[in-house]
Design brief:
single chain; about 575 residues; alpha/beta; TIM Barrel; 3 domains; eight-stranded parallel β-sheet; six-stranded antiparallel β-sheet; 32 strands; about 30% strand
């Protein structure tokens, strides 16, 4: 068997036909979808000029967009597309949806302003029924200011090291949907291991039909709420990712969705605090996943690329991905739901980063700091809180998400103890890591540490210990490296054999011994290389897998079995 594995060959598919022509909202699926991805007119400047062509939904900085250009002076970006609505498509109202536009967008249809949105990671929509004509024109005006006020993640104009090429403009699917006058606007699902409560916004009465192993179960929707208790309930876990499909039917509308039964809690077991899944201690064996792609940046060439990453990591024995400072299209979370991959989801940071304060001093031991007076700009504080609330609302129903991270390594951190309570009010069902890495908070569900340059050690703590970043060894396969001149990682390996041995040794000699001492989760850095960073288990182009299942599956089994 070859000692490297080719995984990724999707760019050609993205260049043919309509890219990302799949239904973009798996948890609220209606029989109405018209994808507007593909070629749009594009221009850069203060005035709406359209002298180029761009391939949506790829950001203009990416190769797949057909533009491949960065914009350090932060100009206004313009998009335009003409469309007609097929006969019979419109029921009563027509909605225009954007998966995400980075960062602020104004949307015009037939020269009428129909939507304004602030924030680069959230979906938004608008009703365009009243401005429709026989032939229609969408124009989108986008501005992207990397000034630290709005959440921006790992983007920086001067990319390099742990900072990556910035992304602007439309980077998720644009689509049309037709709905009746009275339609289901949203679903909220709350679950235990035996039942689910579905709350519907927009309509009050109807029926909910659930597919179960014992057959269809039909329950009434009354006052917008349906209580579902399947016979012989099947719980969700990475090992058995069972999903219950269900349909909500009202007088005028029908949507399809799904839920999973599972619970999360903290228990003390044999004197040690443990994170529990479905009532039992569980070891979350994970990887840092930053969601960047060599040809599409924020957006992979096709939706299938998510499945390829997830399946490759599951084959190595991992059961968790820490989605690092980025919110993905819902397709990613749906794939984690159905394939069985836990997600530890970060909020997207904003405000300024300083190497001395946020990295150097904490690395040598300054792990506590009063954050009440850090990042005092009221606009950036409000933007972070709004971004956090929108992230929870958008992703709440996905069973794969088991854990929220509020602040990472002090970036933008302020009043973490208060933010814990703010997030807890939004979601009382998941673990919360208030301060991943350092500048530790009192109000947090875990003791979360990043350890790269020291021997791994469990802290003295009464909370479950999460090693939320570690490892990060660099190996650079020839011909599959973004930057051939520099190496960025936390340990350098000249050969693949040395890399495999270093990773195995790290887990057997340092990670495994920490589990009896209270280690509940470990997040190795990382899934893939990203530009200068060459510390992934996959290369940035996804063509080479550096660590193979037969070389690591035994360690994964020991990790997961160690808490049973």
């Amino acid at each position: 068997m070859s000692k490297t594995t080719v995984l990724y060959a999707a760019a050609g598919e993205a260049l043919c036909g309509t890219p990302w022509n799949v239904y973009p909202r798996p948890q609220l699926k209606r029989d109405s979808f018209l994808c507007l991805n593909g070629e749009w007119e594009f221009g850069v400047g203060d005035m709406p000029t359209f002298d180029r062509t761009i391939r949506v939904p790829f950001a203009p900085e990416s190769l797949l967009s057909g533009i491949g250009e960065t914009f350090p002076h932060e100009p206004t970006l313009w998009y335009r597309r003409r469309f007609t609505v097929p006969n019979g498509f419109i029921k009563d109202r027509l909605l225009l949806h954007f998966g995400a536009v980075d960062q602020t967008a104004e949307v015009f249809v037939n020269n009428e302003l129909v939507a304004q949105h602030v924030g680069g990671y959230e979906a938004f929509s608008c009703d365009v029924t009243d401005v429709l004509q026989e032939e229609n024109t969408i124009t989108v005006r986008v501005q992207d200011r990397l000034d630290g006020v709005l959440p921006y993640g790992k983007q920086r104009h001067k990319r390099g090291g742990m900072w990556y090429t910035p992304v602007s403009g439309i980077w998720q699917t644009v689509w049309l949907e037709s709905v009746p006058e009275q339609y289901i606007r949203s679903l909220t699902v709350n679950v235990t291991t035996t039942s689910a409560t579905v709350t519907v916004e927009g309509v009050q009465e109807g029926v909910v039909t659930v597919a179960t192993p014992a057959g269809e179960l039909t329950v009434p929707l009354t006052a917008g709420v349906a209580q579902i208790a399947p016979e012989n309930p099947q719980v969700w876990s990475p090992e058995t990712p069972y999903l219950y499909d269900f349909t909500v039917t009202t007088a005028d509308d029908t949507v399809k969705s799904y839920f999973a039964l599972r619970t999360l809690e903290t228990k003390t077991v044999n004197g040690v605090p443990r994170l529990c899944l479905n009532g039992k201690p569980y070891f979350f064996h994970g990887l840092l996943d930053q969601g960047y792609w060599s040809d599409g940046l924020f957006t992979p060439a096709t939706p299938a690329c998510y499945e390829q990453d997830i399946v490759a990591m599951k084959a190595l024995g991992f059961n968790m991905l820490r989605k690092h400072i980025k919110v993905e299209p819902e397709q990613f979370y749906y794939d984690c739901d159905r394939l069985g991959m836990v997600v530890f989801q970060d909020m997207v940071n904003n405000s300024d980063y300083r190497f001395l304060r946020d990295t150097a001093l904490p690395t040598v031991g300054l792990l506590r700091r009063d954050d009440r007076h850090l990042h005092r700009n009221s606009a950036s504080r409000c933007a972070f809180e709004e971004g956090m609330a929108q992230t929870v609302r958008q992703l709440y129903n996905h069973p794969c998400i088991c854990y929220w991270t509020i602040f990472n390594e002090g970036w933008g951190q302020f009043c973490a103890d208060e933010q814990y309570h703010r997030l807890r009010a939004l979601d009382n069902s998941r673990f919360i890591d208030s301060t991943s890495g350092w500048f530790l908070a009192k109000n947090t569900d875990v003791d979360s540490r990043h350890i790269y340059f020291k021997k791994l050690k469990a802290p003295a703590s009464d909370k479950p210990f999460v090693l939320s970043e570690f490892g990060g060894y660099s190996y650079k396969p020839t011909g599959h490296v973004f930057n051939t001149e520099q190496t960025y990682g936390y340990g350098k390996c000249e050969t693949r054999e040395a890399f495999v041995e270093m990773v195995r040794q790290l887990y057997t000699e340092q990670v495994l011994p920490l589990i009896p001492q209270g280690l509940c989760a470990a997040v190795y850095t990382q899934v893939s290389d990203i530009e200068d960073e060459t510390n992934g288990l996959l290369t940035y182009d996804r063509r080479v897998q550096k660590l193979l299942p037969e070389e690591f599956a035994d360690i994964s089994k020991r990790l997961v079995d160690s808490v049973e």
